Amino acid sequence: MQRNILGTRIPAGMHDFLPAELGILEKLEGKLLDRLRRWGYQKVLTPALEYAACVQPELDKDDELYKFFDRQGHILALRPEFTTPIARMVGARLRTLSLPLRFCYAGDVYRSSSAQYREFRQVGVELIGSGSALADAEVIALAAEGMRELGVADCQLNLGHMGIFMGLMSELGVPSEVQGALEEKLARKDLVGIESLVRQSDLSDQAKEILLKLPYLHGGEEILDELVRFSKQAEIREAVNGLREVYGYLKDFGVQDMVALDLGILRGFSYYTGVIFEGYVPGVGFPVVEGGRYDALYGDFGFPQPATGFAIHLGSLLGLFPHDGLEPAGVLVYGADRSEVIRRAQALRSEGKRVEMAFEVVSPEVEERWVEEKNISRVEKV
Amino acid sequence: MPRNFLTIALPKGKLLEDSLDVLSQAGLACRDVNEDSRKLLFEFPEQAAQIVICRPTDIPTYVEYGAADLGFVGKDTLLEENKDVAELLDLKFGYCRFVVAMPEEKVPPRQADGSFDLTSLNHQRVATKFPRVAQTFFSELGMQVTPIKLHGNIELAPRVGLAEMIVDIVSTGTTLRQNHLVEVAPILEATTRVIANRVSYRMKYKRIQELVERLREAQGLGDS
Asked: Omega of the bond prior to A100 within 30 degrees of 0, cis?
């Protein structure tokens, strides 16, 4: 049937990959997965369709899921990320394995409100069953190595900690309605809103000062000293010590030069509970790496375990690479005797060559065009 | 391009003059930028910066994608565009208010506290340049209205029956009066804000923070 206008298009935010571009994507993905496997991460894959109750438990929240109904009337959703589906999978099927578990993944995720692509490739890891600072350091170092492996040497990873904001809230005795408003503004990165909220509050001057300063604490270990001077609170001490330990290990891993401490990473209050990090690349307006510790998520699936991980947004990085990902040049075989053409082509293939057969005898002009278009280095007439 | 190079997006129109003033006071020599010439891009290589002039409503988009590191934009536009950008500083100029207004002969009755009783406006049409702001305001009151998006001369809509009321920004109220419209509810107040791309804000942190501090001083905001 002749397609109508809609039938010849693709939905907003979707993307066709032609050979050259797909070649790049797969090359990058292959490099990354190799690196992740070398650190002991095993690849898993969860389905593209999940129950919405798994990936978005708070259905009343304004979300960015693609949702569908199945025949029984249940709400299904395309996965918006891999961390939650992997938690579901581990909680349901892998509880008896020895901890920690190391899994990696590569696949497309779907977000209907995303400014860029709405279907994009993520490659990432989950490290499940360890709350140690070394586990945090391992995934951060692996993210850094992964970015180096991709050839994005000027990637910068910024490292923060969710416990510092939460600790400040309880230390300063911030009333819960103010905390809620602050979290909302923090998630929107609305520093103007935070400033006016804090200034209008009944908090002490010292509390106001530290809250207003928090988004600007950025640099090396000296910012942790600065924070500790402000606060005696246990949760903050713990967060600061955790960050110090992680930062130290990153030196041992040889990636500390790519990492900055940054207490101003403004993240909505998602599932993250401890160390969080984001990776940036000059020229890409969105974070290309997102990760951190999420110690409460596995409890939601009846298997309370600390966990940490990251995802690299491979799709956002594609623009940094020239689209020359074509297969290595091949051989074109043609001739008048078709049986002979088949035998020659098969013989070359068994030697590992990439071979295309022409079904007819081709003219020199056609030959010339194919050599150009199909990246062919040799033509054999048999 | 060096790592600390800054691209700043400024809105053409009424905010441009004040934006340039405050930027110059903050040490960026950008006096020769103006929108009368057809130029849209002004380079300041010795200051490692460039300024682009955009339509106000496009500024959040330039900044969200990182095409501009910083943008100057009215809070009204920022709310309506709802982009993922960091809002760094209130420059306090370009003050205006969002209001709901209606033809004077149709205003609803007042309540005991003097405010208008808006409940009779349920299910009516609202002409506005800011459908998101309008929708949010009315849904927070538990009301349903139908926003009708227009691009200008909003005050005309009720006079010809396109909508029962309007949501618009006012600075003095003259336009409302000239069109026999009465403000029936304030929504919120807006001033010009400095916004930053979320990656630039972390990668060009020092440069941006320095500029923001100087802008803050230039505005005489201090810690008042």
From this structure: yes
Can you tell me the distance from the alpha carbon of B101 to that of B148, in angstroms, rounded to the nearest whole number?
14
Distance from CA of residue A110 to its chain's centroid? 12
Q: What is the CATH number of domain A1-152+286-327?
A: 3.30.930.10
Full-model pTM: 0.85
Arch. (CATH architecture) of A156-280: 2-Layer Sandwich (3.30)
A191, A278, A287 member nearest B87 (Cβ): A191
pLDDT score of A349 more than 70: yes
Q: Are A49 and A78 in contact (CB under 8 A)?
A: yes
Mean pLDDT confidence for A202-220:
80
Q: What share of chain A is helix, strand, coil (3-state, %, to 5)?
A: 45, 20, 35
Q: Under a CB-based contact definition with an 8 Å cutoff, are residues B31 and B73 in contact?
A: no
Residues of chain B with pLDDT under 50: 221-224
The tokens of A284 are what? Answer: 């890409």
CB within 8 Å: B86 and A218: no
DSSP A41: P
Whether the per-residue pLDDT at A171 is higher than 50: the answer is: yes
Using H for helix, E for strand and C for coil, what is the string for A358-371?
CCCCCCHHHHHHHH
How many H helices and E strands in chain A?
A: 13, 15
Give the residue-averaged pLDDT of A122-132.
97
> What residue ranges in chain A does DSSP mark as E strands?
42-43, 49-51, 67-69, 75-78, 101-110, 119-128, 156-161, 218-219, 259-262, 275-280, 289-293, 307-313, 330-334, 355-357, 376-381
Distance CA A124, CA A107 (A): 9
Residues of B with CB under 8 A from a CB of A: 1, 3, 64-67, 83-90, 193, 197-203, 205, 209
- Domain parsing of chain A, residue ranges: 1-152+286-327, 156-280, 331-381
Instruction: List all residues 6 or more positions away from B220 whose beta carbon is below 8 Å from its beta carbon.
Output: none
> What single string gives the DSSP state of each residue in A83-129?
HHHHHHHHHHH-TTSPSPEEEEEEEEEE-TT-SS-SEEEEEEEEEES
**Band of the pLDDT at A326, cuts 50, 70, 90?**
low
Q: The tokens of A108 are what?
A: 């497309």
Q: What local confidence, expressed as pLDDT, does residue B222 receive? A: 42
A156-280: same fold as A1-152+286-327? Answer: yes
Mutate to test the interface with B, among A147, A191, A218, A278 (most CBs of B within 10 A): A191
